[in-house]
Amino acid sequence: MRQPSANQNPSDLVGRRVVIRYRLHGDEFGATDVLGLLESHSRDELRVRPSRGGDVVVVRADDVIVVKEIPELTVTRRDVRDLETAALHGWRALEPEWHGGWLLRASGGFTGRANSCLPLDDPGRPLPEAVELVERWYRARGLVPAFQVPEPLGRTLGPVLDARGWPALEDRTFVMVASVDVVRGAERAELPRVRVDDRPDDAWLAGYHYRGGELPAHAVDVLVNADRVGFASVDDDGERVAIARGAVSDASSGRRWLGVTAVEVAPVARRRGLGGHIVAGLAAWADQLGATDVYLQVAEPNEPARATYRKAGFAEHHAYHYRRLR
Question: Where are the domains of the chain?
Fold first, then answer.
């Protein structure tokens, strides 16, 4: 995470959170500040989307006094645990089983999240003994023993897994967050409307390519296994051009989140803004259910997607990775 610094080149800060102090004309105070996401920069102007929502602020380049990048977020272990609690309710396993503060999850192998142990807190027994329990539990179900390890909650777990011969971490993923109000701002009036249904229809399922493969027969059971779930679709001239899944769930703090997954845009319809548009439609749906914030997950290697979400107002909250015993 970069630290704030003055007089940085604004071109290097596009897609990041900044504070800009700029001159006002005809105002007795002479200057003001705007805090938000720097969407673009040119020789003539800077465009900033305020952190608290609202219209984009356009600042003339000649009026800029100073530009400072600010840290994305200050996230505590409690914050990570709180958001992961909401996420586990947004993508629930078919067979969950708690052991102390560890949640063991099995769903016939469909998705890593639904078939891994989530170590949120103390397991209530020595770590080597708890890891051995996890190994037996998954082997008994014909599944690969696996952990989904939120960072930094799993620092003490890593050395135990290393000692037992578990392979190195893989599939590191960033969890990114934004307010519902900010995400709704990406809705595009010129695009076909977003429809949200309680269950996925055949066209939705045909558009979902989990890890590029075919969905197993029980995939729908996993997809609908949440209290408040919505399947968003955008159709254009009778063709399904974009899909996404949303689940509204509460964290232990009571904060209500929208979790966005399975965002896909048909190859022939890309570069039209449909990805942001369909996520904005889910945010509007979740707003009616009382959600105030949105989270989604982006794989670490997918820097273009992370940059796109940053420009849309998302900030990186924390990361997680998987450990699998082959």
Answer: 10-69, 77-172, 175-318
